Structure formats: C-alpha cells, structure tokens
Amino acid sequence: MKSKFAVGFMMVAVVLVAQLPALAQGRGMRGGGGWMGGGGFMMAAYLGLTSEQQSQLKTLQQSAWTTAKPLVQQLATYQNQLRQLTESNTPLNTAQVNTLVGEIAAIQSQLTVARAQTQWQYFNSILTPDQQAKLLQLQQQMQQMRQNHHNNQNNNSNQ
Predict the structure, then answer these.
(1) What pTM was estimated for this model as a whole?
(2) What tens digit of pLDDT does each residue of 72-112 get?
(3) What is the C-alpha separation between 131 and 144, in angstroms, rounded?
C-alpha cells in the first residue's frame, strides 16, 4: 500500500514538474489555479519551498504570463484561422495555409524560448542547491516511470 501511495505521489509530482513550463506561461493560473493551486502545495512541500520562494515563483509566473499572453492570444487567432481554412467548402488555399503554419511555428518557437528562460530562472534563481537536486532526482524517477510505462504498452501491443 505504501508503494502505491509513493508511486501515486511521484506521478502527481511529475505532472506538476512537467507543467512548470505551462504554468510559467500562465496557463492554469487563471481562476485561482496555477502552481500554488491544484496540487502546487504538494510540490512546494516536497521541495520544501519557503514562503519567500513561493512568492518569488508567483512573481516569476506573473511576469512570464505578461510576456506570453499576447503570443498565446495571437497563436489562438492563427490556429482558428487555419481551422477555418480546413473546414471551408472552398478549395484549400495552400499559400494561406503555409503562411499560417509559418506564423504558428514562429510563435510556438518564441513561447518555447520564453518557457526555457522561465524554467532556467526558476531552477537557478529560486531553488536552493538541495531543492535543485531533489527536483532533478524526481524528474529522473518520473522519466524512468514514463519509459517503463511506454515499454509496457509496447510489450502489450506486440502480444
């Protein structure tokens, strides 16, 4: 039973760690969610974040979202335009599709860079060396669990 609880806790922790990029962009912060809501307290407790660190993280998230919000909005606009093109009864305008795909890729690239910068800042400016080690160990354990799960799925599908 304890091992099931530990695995469950680790899975929740991994999901939270994996969501740091999205949370840094601000997704999940709306409506009272975000890193410190919806399970973030478990991660804060696991890493032993102080109230000051939690405050720094919230400030970092808000800053990241301020930067990312217009990009996310523009991305949604382009994705909607692309969807409208593909759902139209008129012949597909591949030039427009190519233009939209290029715009979408450029914005996704900008968001990925912003996400990486936010993660780097979180890891190097907020976490202590001990917390960094704990987080890295957790990420490695979760990567191993994902790999084991993937291998099990592949083995089951080959039977």
Answers:
(1) 0.67
(2) 999 999 999 999 999 999 999 999 999 999 999 999 999 99
(3) 20
